[in-house]
Amino acid sequence: MKYTVDIAQPNFDKNGFATQSGWLQIYQYAYDATGEYTGTTYEYVIKDMGLSAGSTLAAPIIPADDKAIVRSEDSKTWEYPADHRGKPIFNAETQAALIVDYIGEIKAGFTLIELKTPFDKWDGKKWVTDKKAQKEQAVRLAESQKKALISEAETEITLLERKSRLAMASDEEKAIVNAWEIYSVQLSEVNTETAPNINWPEKPQ
Questions:
Q1: Which residues contact 115 (CB under 8 A, 6 or more apart)?
Q2: pLDDT, position 1
Q3: β-pairing verdict for 55-56 and 78-79
Q4: Which one of 26, 53, 106, 163 has the fewest CB atoms closer than 10 angstroms to its CB?
């Protein structure tokens, strides 16, 4: 035919070389790295030349969001491995959190399951909270808080009593000394073994 309105599209011989020049839609992948699909474009193929490296005429299937598109090692097919990139994972031994930056299943020793407490331990399938360690920590924190509050109260009482003795205390300050003393006694009676469920006495205002 003398004329044509079609764009010439090359065919390829058994060795992968174009039998004529023309435009083709190609599908590209990171051939020198992960093999991940990077997109599609049009390429002008010159006669007796092949496709550019990292490209194929085979269109991949668009998978679910938790899958990646990767060219097989022999570059003959598309594969669809798991893709958890950007998700947090947790070290089963140390509990340390990392962000997945690789394609494929989660590496051994890590899990996508999030910890519920800092006292969780991995049993091979799920996190199990070490209730004893959790309780001991709560008691230690409560005991530390109790000591700090009592110290604060005693400091206030000492200062107010000194001001009263030196006739430097206002009527309001004289009246509140008793409230601080009651507060200090209430603190001393707090049972930290009930932590974290403790009703702390209200501090005088």
A1: 90, 95, 127
A2: 63
A3: unpaired
A4: 53
72-125 residue pLDDT tens: 999 999 999 999 999 999 999 999 999 999 999 999 999 999 999 999 999 999
Quick check: pTM over 0.90? no
Select from 72, 62, 80, 81 the least CA-distant residue to 31.
72
Classify each residue of 170-179 as buried b or exposed e, where b means 16 or more C-beta atoms within 10 Å of its C-beta: eeeeeebbeb
Which token pair is 6? 């079609």
Query: Encoding tokens for residue 192?
Result: 């930290």
